[in-house]
Design brief:
single chain; mainly alpha; Serine Threonine Protein Phosphatase 5, Tetratricopeptide repeat; about 70% helix; elongated; disordered C terminus
Length: about 200
C-alpha cells in the first residue's frame, strides 16, 4: 500500500515530521500572540522559541511549562507548547493541549487544524475530517486546513477503494485504476515506497 504524507499542522507539518522546524511556520501566529501578550509573556515565548531554534528543545519546553504555571490560560504559550510537543513526537500530550485549546477558544481554527493533524496521524481519519471541517467553518480561508481537508478526503477515498477491491472475488480494473490515481494524488513521504 502506498504511504502518503498526512495533513499538516497550522504551524505546518503533520506526520511524519519534515526536517524543517514547525516553529518556523508558526511565525505569523506566534507574532500575533506576542503582540497581544503582556511584555512578560512575549519575552517568555520569545526566549522559548530562541531555545528551540538553537536546538535546546528540552529547555524550550521547560521555559513554556514554567511560564504556564504562572499563567495557565495564556494562549500563545499553550499553542507553542502544543506545537513543540507535536514536533517532539509526544502526540498524546500535544493532543491534550489542542483539545483543551479548542474547548477554551472554540472560535479559533488553528487548534482544530492541529488536532486534526494528530487525529489523522493516529489513523482517525473521520475524526480528523470533522475537526478540519470545523476549522474551515470557523475560517473559510484557512489555507492549511483546506489543504489538510483535501488530503484527508483523498486518504478516506483511497481507503474506501481499497476496501471495495478487497471485498470483490476478483480484482476490478476500474477500482485498481482509481486506487493508483488516488495514490498518485497523495503527497509522497520521503523514504517511503509507493505501491
Amino acid at each position: 500500500m502506498h504511504r502518503s504524507e498526512p495533513p499538516r499542522a497550522s504551524a505546518r507539518p503533520f506526520f511524519p515530521v519534515p526536517p524543517i522546524s514547525w516553529l518556523a511556520w508558526l511565525q505569523p501566529l506566534l507574532m500575533a500572540c506576542l503582540l497581544s501578550a503582556s511584555p512578560v509573556h512575549a519575552t517568555e515565548l520569545d526566549a522559548a522559541q530562541q531555545q528551540w531554534l538553537a536546538g535546546h528543545r528540552a529547555q524550550a519546553v521547560q521555559l513554556l511549562e514554567q511560564a504556564l504555571v504562572q499563567t495557565p490560560n495564556e494562549l500563545g504559550l499553550r499553542f507553542a507548547l502544543g506545537v513543540m510537543r507535536m514536533e517532539l513526537g509526544e502526540r498524546v500530550k500535544a493532543r491534550t493541549i489542542f483539545v483543551a485549546l479548542s474547548q477554551d477558544y472554540p472560535d479559533l481554527a488553528d487548534p482544530y487544524n492541529n488536532l486534526a493533524v494528530l487525529l489523522a496521524a493516529d489513523g482517525e481519519l473521520e475524526a480528523a475530517r470533522d475537526a478540519l471541517e470545523h476549522a474551515v467553518l470557523l475560517q473559510p480561508t484557512h489555507a492549511q486546513a483546506l489543504e489538510n481537508l483535501g488530503d484527508v478526503l483523498l486518504r478516506l477515498a483511497l481507503r474506501s477503494y481499497e476496501r471495495a477491491q478487497a471485498a470483490l472475488a476478483a480484482p476490478s480494473p476500474a477500482l485498481t485504476l482509481k486506487v493508483h490515481r488516488t495514490q498518485d494524488l497523495l503527497p509522497k513521504v520521503p523514504g517511503s515506497t509507493s505501491r
